[in-house]
Amino acid sequence: MKQSRFFPWIGFIFGAIYFLVPLIATFEFSLRMQRGTYSFKAYQVVLADPGFQASFSYSALIALLTIIVGIALVVPTAYLVQLKLPKLRPVVEFMTLLPLVVPAIVIVFGYLRMYNSSSWLPLTGSARSTDLLLVFAYVTLSLPYMYRSVDTALRTVDIRTLTEAAQSLGSSWPRILIQVILPNIRVGVLSGAFLTFAIVIGEFTIASLLNRPAFGPYMQLIGANRAYEPAALAVIAFAITWACMGLIQLVASFSPGQKR
Amino acid sequence: MAFLSIERITKTFGATTTVKGVDLAVERGEFVTLLGPSGCGKTTILRMVAGFETPSSGTIRIDGKDVTDLKPHQRKIGMVFQAYALFPNMTVADNIAFGLKVARKNGAEIASRVKEMLELIKLPQVAERYPYQLSGGQQQRVALARALAIKPQILLLDEPLSALDAKIRVSLRDEIRAVQRQLGITTIFVTHDQEEALSMSDRVCVMSEGRIEQLGTPFEIYNYPKTRFVASFVGTLNILSGRVSDGAEGRIVVDGQEIVTSRGLNGASTGDALAVALRPEALSIGRANGSSNNLEGTIDEVHFLGSVVRIRVRFKESAVSLDTFNRPNAAPPERGQPITVNFGREDILVLEGAPN
């Protein structure tokens, strides 16, 4: 019997309207900066603003550092849990999910209490050490996404046999991890990296309360004081996220040794 | 002294002892197969030799050197896995070169060795392909080349043919044996397939429940199984229960009919229960004169298998199967027909251990 496609289509159309209408409305509004005509004036103003460039560069750098620290932390952990400590998997999964349960504002207040300038580890004492604290905070925040991406990729590869094959060929642990395991979970690692990038670029709470010049607080500042530019910024932020998603797809389809 | 020496090795996982005090000595250049059903400990022994598992007790020596506590990468052992285990992100050439790069060989030496290995496995044209572009048989040959490239002391093969289809299995087992002979490398092969074990090995080590049941040449294992387990696991075998009627003369009563072995039953007393085994190929239809044994029974089943007809003959309590060639001009026997089965005295295998 042929199934009716009516209800699936209704669902799809409803979903599309729900997501696209506000986006189209925002985009349309962002083009109205010049009276009586559509233009990209708001985008020109935003992109020319030194504040935009500085905050975006800062956030991009922090995102990059977050990704590096995140990969260095998550890949060996997920690998070892899968290979040697499978019984610990539920514990590690629970821990990586905590950032989704504990709000960012709670995390940052905890940080301020733990690492304030009069504490035993005064990470908020200088700008550089606060940047470091921000990176650690973002590593925590992106943990659910990074860990899941890497863990899922590891499950698709027979890491035990590959590890043993490499060991029998004389390879040491670091070489196995870098030359055998990492290239075979590259898509998962990059998915986690792009998701991390998207999260860090838009994050407001922690950056704002740690008083760092990040893109999130900049967007909030512009939103509070301007009319058309915030809409343009929102569209730019969406474009960055989509570009990250597109890159994940692109990388996935160009991995050596994978069927295409 | 043997090249590979496994001495009183035991492996325990929690409350389960998988390998129970196994001793095994393998000579240089020998091809020894560990044969047994799943869970008999054969793969665990192989993994202990490779260094992936540490023995709970006992010693492993290679060329006189104690390697029991060495890490896998320190043992210079080549291993081929059931699941190929080629590195998916590397080309065939890179896979073969991996161990050589780890050993910091120079570029020219690596290139020449990779070429040599590809020629050895007769796949020189696939150097730049990725594993997913190869068939299962080709992947396993590349895995063999990769394991051999580092010139290992011992080659370990962990059910390397199990994932392949029947035709490829037969051709690849011949290739593996040819390569092993050509290089003269000491090899341990693990399988649960008795045909593979018998056809490839210098010696076969039949294992059950963590112990070695019998170690011998394929000829010895097949023709002179020492235990009921070996007899039943290796080849097709008819096992009959009987009682000794005259130990000195080797007379046994099976289902009320007397058979005589070629040798006396040392130490057996009249009335002792025992089990005897008969290979299907030792049985013939019809009454034989002279010193042969004859057993009378009824045809229970007839299976037409093409070139062969398998006949099951029932006596009172027990039954035997025998194969005859299909002859197009003679109709196969029918069920219920009385039949006499004959076999030589020397064809009777008296098994150790009490019959079940």
TrEMBL record, chain A:
The primary site where this protein sits is: membrane
Q: Does the keyword Transport apply?
A: yes
Query: Which SUPFAM superfamilies does this UniProt record tie to the protein?
Result: MetI-like (SSF161098)
Pfam family of this protein, just one?
BPD_transp_1
Bilayer-crossing regions: 7-27, 56-79, 91-112, 132-150, 187-210, 230-252
Domain ABC transmembrane type-1 spans what residues?
A: 56-249
> How does the entry describe its membrane topology?
Multi-pass membrane protein
Q: Which InterPro entries match?
A: MetI-like, MetI-like_sf
Keyword annotations: Cell inner membrane, Cell membrane, Membrane, Transmembrane, Transmembrane helix, Transport
Listed GO biological process terms: transmembrane transport
Can you cite an annotated GO cellular component?
plasma membrane
Spell out the subcellular localization from the entry: Cell inner membrane; Cell membrane
Keyword Transmembrane assigned to the entry: answer is yes
User: PANTHER family under this entry?
Assistant: INNER MEMBRANE ABC TRANSPORTER PERMEASE PROTEIN YDCV (PTHR43357:SF4)
**Entry similarity comment:** Belongs to the binding-protein-dependent transport system permease family.
The name on file for this protein is Putative spermidine/putrescine transport system permease protein
Natural source organism: Kaistia soli DSM 19436
TrEMBL record, chain B:
* Keywords on record: ATP-binding, Cell membrane, Membrane, Nucleotide-binding, Translocase, Transport
Q: Does the keyword Acetylation apply?
A: no
ABC transporter domain residues? 4-234
- Keyword Membrane recorded: yes
Recorded GO MF terms: ABC-type polyamine transporter activity; ATP binding; ATP hydrolysis activity
Q: Which residues form a coiled coil?
A: none
Q: Which family does it belong to?
A: Belongs to the ABC transporter superfamily. Spermidine/putrescine importer (TC 3.A.1.11.1) family.
Instruction: Provide the function of this protein.
Output: Part of the ABC transporter complex PotABCD involved in spermidine/putrescine import. Responsible for energy coupling to the transport system.
Q: Give the multimer and partner information.
A: The complex is composed of two ATP-binding proteins (PotA), two transmembrane proteins (PotB and PotC) and a solute-binding protein (PotD).
- Could you identify this protein by its name? Spermidine/putrescine import ATP-binding protein PotA
